[in-house]
Amino acid sequence: xxxxxxxxxxxxxxxxxxxxxRSSVGLSFKLKLSKIIIGMTVVSFATSAPELIVSLNAALxxxxxxxLSNVIGSNIANIALVLGVTALIFPLxxxxxxxxxxxxxxxxxxxxxxxxxxxxxxxxxxxxxxxxLSLIIFVVVMIKMSRDKNLVSDEVDESLSETSNFKIIAxxxxxxxxxxxxxxxxxxGAVDIAAKLGVSERVIGVTMVALGTSxxxxxxxxxxxxxxxxxxSLGNLxxxxxxxxxxxxxxxxxxxxxxxxxxRLLSSDIFWMLAISLVLLPLxxxxxxxxxxxxxxLVLLGGYIAFIYLSYKQLS
Length: 316
Known about the structure:
The chain is mainly α. It has a single domain, classed as NCX, central ion-binding region (A middle domain of Talin 1), CATH 1.20.1420.30. The chain contains 12 helices and 4 strands. The strands form 2 sheets. A two-stranded antiparallel sheet has the order 1-4. The longest helix has 33 residues. The chain starts with a helix and ends with a helix. The mean pLDDT is 83.
């Protein structure tokens, strides 16, 4: 039954995330927001909804390790797995904003998260507020830069501009219930499997739960790569990592402080997240500049396989 709960939970999270994105974008068009603002704020926040709901639900139900490991594992998966697999299918061109804004912000937030947790083994409400405030400042700066460059977001479906009010409300209700139900099933199934196998919630969270909440990004990236579309970029995936730390953990900590239960989150997992994030910079420039080639994708994918293997090997 635990496996069934996890599978059903993942399916509901995918469905809920899709409906939430559609309703959010449809509502944004009704409010006459520009495509770039919708893409950089509404879509990014909505696609982080599975991580947010799962982490918040886990923290409120007394499983803080699931909340933390979900975000740390998702950030590792977004880069090493999603980007790795996508680059293997079709090499990606990389925008200069990667090293000017996105990557530095991701690294700063990752390091700040580590320092906040290392200080007292807890992410407090004040620290959560600082993370969330930094996201607001970052988004404002990015929107201003995008307007100055007259950029238009490629990740917003123009057809949603004609969505009726009834559909927007229906999608919002369906998405909300699906995300809530999916998070309940996923958390309960993960906790039950951890108890039965004698595996820590941290390991389940950083692997199975994190992979599950990264399924929407993986599916969208693979489909886009197969179609040779440019809508999925390295910037989008890094943006997701930024939102995971600043929005998911930030908002969760504001509502309920998050404690570190398993010390290996700080002695192992978070260093994997930092290392994989850090290695992106040299990969982007060498040997082929501003192109994520298949060889680079293979390197990232190999890193993810090593991470998963070592996570479970520690238990034997």
